[in-house]
Amino acid sequence: xxxxxxxxxxxxxxxxxxxxxxxxxxxxxxxxxxxxxxxxxxxxxxxxxxxxxxxxxxxxxxxxxxxxxxxxxxxxxxxxxxxxxxxxxxxxxxxxxxxxxxxxxxxxxxxxxxxxxxxxxxxxxxxxxxxxxxxxxxxxxxxxxxxxxxxxxxxxxxxxxxxxxxxxxxxxxxxxxxxxxxxxxxxxxxxxxxxxxxxxxxxxxxxxxxxxxxxxxxxxxxxxxxxxxxxxxxxxxxxxxxxxxxxxxxxxxxxxxxxxxxxxxxxxxxxxxxxxxxxxxxxxxxxxxxxxxxxxxxxxxxxxxxxxxxxxxxxxxxxxxxxxxxxxxxxxxxxxxxxxxxxxxxxxxxxxxxxxxxxxxxxxxxxxxxxxx
Length: 373
Description:
Layout: E1 17-21, H1 26-38, E2 42-47, H2 52-65, E3 75-79, H3 91-100, E4 103-106, H4 117-124, H5 126-135, E5 143-148, E6 162-163, H6 178-195, E7 200-205, E8 207-209, H7 222-233, E9 235-237, E10 242-243, E11 245-247, H8 248-260, E12 268-270, E13 277-278, H9 279-286, E14 294-296, H10 298-308, H11 316-322, E15 339-340, H12 359-371
Parallel strand pairs: 1-2, 1-4, 2-3, 4-5, 5-7, 6-15, 7-12, 8-11, 9-14
Antiparallel strand pairs: 10-13
């Protein structure tokens, strides 16, 4: 995907220090790399841990998993916990951080699709509240919050065909998913802050796939675990949906460039530039690595995978995940049929955005990465 010549400039000479949460995650590794590539800024990475060396090791191991390297001379470790007041820091360290930073990119979150809301609230909602508190002061610090398209799995969107880059509906949300609810409640905090004049951007991310440049995937992703089970057993669930998705390196590039742009409005973006990928096409890419891929109804497929796990330890994690949704009802939720407006995103894209090197080539590389997980 080439960038438009008319895209907003990513040159931000006033941004010298950027606070990044979630650097030990899949997206976070690529965000750290892209921030350092796009800017001359120092990056302060919030890391949960007991010591600076341990924090460095966490980030270094995460970067190594994804074959990334960074300029460590511009990386500082900030020990802290999103679930704690002041991130668990003393007032002196907290105030020093507040005085130092010029931009916050908030990617830290609990990402379990099937956890209860109460288990996710401390990080996904209260943690964001603490980020917004850090940003609030005489000189308000711009904040980019990474949200999710799962906010549209709310009941009132069940009859909607297309969703727009605008605030969520102000009704009492009804969710089956605690994760989706936590992202909804977090967006509400951002909307309140923005209404009060805070420079906050909300970026709604789709499912994040492996890097376009390497194909390297998230080994713990929901789709990846299902695909890994398919490759190990030559069995696939019969599903009828299309996956709205984005390669992680393209996602990180867009997040950073949007964050660096000083324009306060618009403040909501859908990072969904590509056409959804039909499940049948994903299965076709998987069939390049297994012979005679057999398709089964979802519940029957789950029971077969459960039996296969007795002889394949690699399947333990996917069986544990599927036990919470054995009929794969998740794939019948709103996000797999909705169209996502990208009017605000368009200036950051090239004309007719497409997967680099073509989608089929990308999927083959991606599936190769999944096969090695």
